[in-house]
Amino acid sequence: MASTDVSCKGNMFTVLSIDGGGIRGIIPGTLLAFLESKLQELDGPDARLADYFDVISGTSTGGLVTTMLTAPNKDNRPLFAAKDINDFYLEQTPKIFPQNSGSDFFGSIASWFDTLTGPKYDGKYLHSLLNSLLGDLTLNQTLTNIVVPAFDIKLLQPVIFSTNDGKENALKNARLADICISTSAAPTYLPAHNFTTSDGKGNTRSFDLIDGAVAANNPTMLAISHILRQMTRKNSELMKEYDDVVEPVMDGKRMLVLSLGTGAAKLEEKYNAAKASEWGLINWIFNNGSTPIIDIFGDASSDVVDFLVSTLFQSRNHKKNYLRIQDDTLIGNESSVDVATSENLQRLVEIGKRLLDKPVSRADLETGRYQTIKGEGTNAEALTNFAKLLSEERKLRLINQK
To answer: Where does the record place the catalytic residues (predicted)?
Structure first.
């Protein structure tokens, strides 16, 4: 099992990051199921992703997946196997995002009116589901360290929930259900969430939170910075090795990072300047069933982080230590966060499967477009190789613990 202490006891620090994206969480769900199956081929049927990653980070729907992979069941093993994530999405998201039963025209009018009077969805089913699923499990109980962002609208600043912080400070040790509700509370879609923590000594802390995607839709850099932060806070014995340990982490030499996107609209297809130049407030909030301002914030945040992390690894010639898998060719309802029709959900499953067969691509630091990398095979082959590296790292740690 990966330790929640991020002081690496092997050769590499291992990171898994999952973007936000509503129902599009099905896409990384498909990739994670494939990766876990490869780990099981190597290490047995009981292998779970939480056994291999020092940090798993996720925003919004990625935060929900992160929690599903790391929250303990009654046997102190992950609540969900990766192969069960998509079944959860297929069953539950139509209830979380109920589709208007009227005609397309009247359904669009109803959705438009909803954005003027309150969130598009009341969130009651999601809240009930997460409270039932996670109960009173708290942040400090996850099976490996997690990092999940939200945004406090009262303080106007991000709030980063992490297992380590939950262990060190009771006021940060929130219920996992509250964290998942908060990180997925996308403006205009779901209501903001308020809750309070206490430390048993009469001290309390109140949170007024919305979706973490407004701060970090792609939480990869948060996960990396969390590792560095924890390392600099370690005891003097580790600090004596600061130059030998921290610098290789900073340049990517001692990190294995897997970052999974939830898909993005095909370039130049969904919106364009000619149309946007005529938009007022309403159009930025509601446009043909989508919310452009939210889509743009999410994609911009994800891409900036990818550029930064890619630069870190590519500039130090450790680019193979960072694997980002993203599909930027989604069209129509595929790119929505909430069109939870059976047809669209099944389409997302197929998109995830096709993504496995696509060649490995990497963001071009000049254009921002994903470019196929010759000689590195398909995403399935890259994930298979990643599984081998994770398995080798875990075995090394087990030997070092003896």
So the answer is: 60, 211
In the structure encoding, which two tokens stand for residue 3, read together?
Answer: 């330790």
H-helix or E-strand spanning residue 192: none
Residue 26 has phi, psi (to 5 degrees) of: -60, -35
Task: Find out whether 307 and 322 touch, Cβ atoms under 8 Å.
Answer: no
Asked whether residue 151 carries a pLDDT value surpassing 90, the answer given is: yes
Q: Which of 211, 299, 306, 328 is catalytic?
A: 211
CA angle 48/1/318 to nearest 5° reads: 85
Q: Smallest Cα–Cα separation from 142: which of 220, 201, 58?
A: 58
Is 335 annotated in the active site? Answer: no
In the chain, what are the domain boundaries?
Answer: 13-101+109-401
Give residue-wise pLDDT tens across range 65-76.
999 999 999 999
Give pTM, 2 decimals.
0.88
DSSP state of 174: -
Give, in words, the CATH class of 13-101+109-401: alpha beta
Is residue 118 a contact partner of residue 366, using CB atoms and an 8 Å limit?
A: no
Q: How far is residue 161's CA from residue 148's CA, in Å, rounded to a whole number? A: 5
For residue 382, which of 260, 226, 199 has the smallest C-alpha distance? 260
Q: Which helix (H) or strand (E) holds 44?
A: none
Whether 103 is catalytic: no
The single residue of 57, 60, 182, 335 carrying the catalytic annotation is 60
Pick from 397, 372, 356: nearest CA to 32: 356
Return the structure tokens found at 251.
Answer: 């340049």
Structure tokens at 117: 């009077």
Residues, the chain, total?
402
